[in-house]
Write a structure and sequence with these properties.
The protein has helices at about 25-35, 50-65, 90-105, 120-135, 150-160, 180-185, 215-220, 230-235, 240-250, 260-270, 280-285, and strands spanning about 5, 10-15, 15-20, 40-45, 75-80, 110-115, 140-145, 165-170, 190-195. With about 300 residues, the protein is of the alpha/beta class.
Length: about 300
């Protein structure tokens, strides 16, 4: 299976292309290359400041690959504002306007999935979620969800009588498996979408300015000659990244690998031709190290 059900009538591809930390001038070529390599889900965000370039890449790919808009699944995210950074928290009206602006930058009439990027400012989360509900009603978002929300954040929404999100995009990989959160999402028919799947790799976020909370011990462990993922990669005749992405897919998580290297983009897409066996899946289950590390400020699912 290459897709999984998100909501009635909406299927999300398991293989997505992430665009975080790809600047607006470089992202069009990366998106176009990804679509040529078989990716059918493109993920961006208002906060990435690259939606215009993503839109160019989408248009180029649709034309070069003779695809219809409906052949692609596009996700973007609302930046909710952050008063601590001097950014006013967004109201319902500002939330609606934000997607209109994102659509203009993307050159699209709708997105397939619109997410609240992170749970900032408790008193404004309900207003922002109400804006997403309205945008879905208007047909500008086929499905709506959240990102980096913990159980308590989601329960705030449903306790207010609002619809539950269709998805929660969170950091998920063998070193941050979040079993309690994942169990809650599954019990409530909310699809977990995995980002930062490649954290255990020595090559993950090594460029200047690509900050994270990855510990020195994690960096040392990922650089070992025979990490468990390298051993598994040799066993299955694939790369380490493919093992990590395949683990997520077998867990039922759509993934969002990112690269600007065309060969790596193609290799990351090659995750449907093998299965990780039960013994290795059980071994990976014991590798959990707790909270995510993708945000230098700490795991946002733990925010108040």
């Amino acid at each position: 299976m290459r897709t999984t059900k998100l909501t009635a009538g909406v299927e999300i591809p398991y293989l997505g292309f992430g665009t975080y930390l790809i600047d607006d001038g470089a992202v069009a070529a990366a998106v176009s290359e990804a679509v040529r390599a078989g990716y059918r889900h493109i993920d961006t965000a208002e906060g990435y400041q690259n939606e215009s370039g993503v839109g160019v890449g989408i248009r180029q790919a649709l034309e070069s690959e003779a695809l219809a808009r409906s052949d692609l699944f596009v996700t973007t995210k609302l930046w909710p504002g952050n008063p601590a950074w001097g950014q006013p928290a967004k109201t319902t009206e500002a939330t609606v306007a934000s997607l209109d602006e994102s659509l203009e930058r993307l050159g699209l009439d709708y997105v397939d999935l619109y997410l609240i990027h992170v749970p900032i400012e408790r008193e404004h989360r309900l207003a922002q979620w109400g804006g997403l509900v309205e945008l879905q009603r208007q047909g500008k978002a086929r499905a709506i969800g959240v990102s980096n929300f913990g159980i308590g954040h989601i329960e705030e929404l449903t306790a207010a009588g609002l619809p539950a999100p269709a998805a929660n995009q969170v950091e998920l990989h063998p070193w941050s498996q979040k079993p309690e959160l994942v169990r809650y999402l599954r019990d409530n028919a909310i699809t977990p979408i995995a980002y930062s799947s490649l954290v255990p790799l020595a090559t993950w976020r090594t460029a200047d300015g690509h900050d994270s909370a990855k510990s020195d011990q994690m960096k040392v462990d990922g650089a070992q000659a025979d990490t468990p993922f390298k051993v598994m990669a040799r066993k299955y005749g694939v790369g380490e990244a493919q093992v990590l992405l395949r683990w997520a897919v077998q867990q039922g998580y759509p993934v969002l690998p990112k690269s600007t290297d065309p060969e790596r983009v193609r290799r990351n897409a090659d995750i449907f031709g093998f299965d990780i066996d039960d013994e290795d899946m059980a071994a990976i289950e014991k590798m959990d190290r707790g909270d995510g590390v993708a945000w230098a400020t700490g795991d946002p699912t733990k925010a108040p």
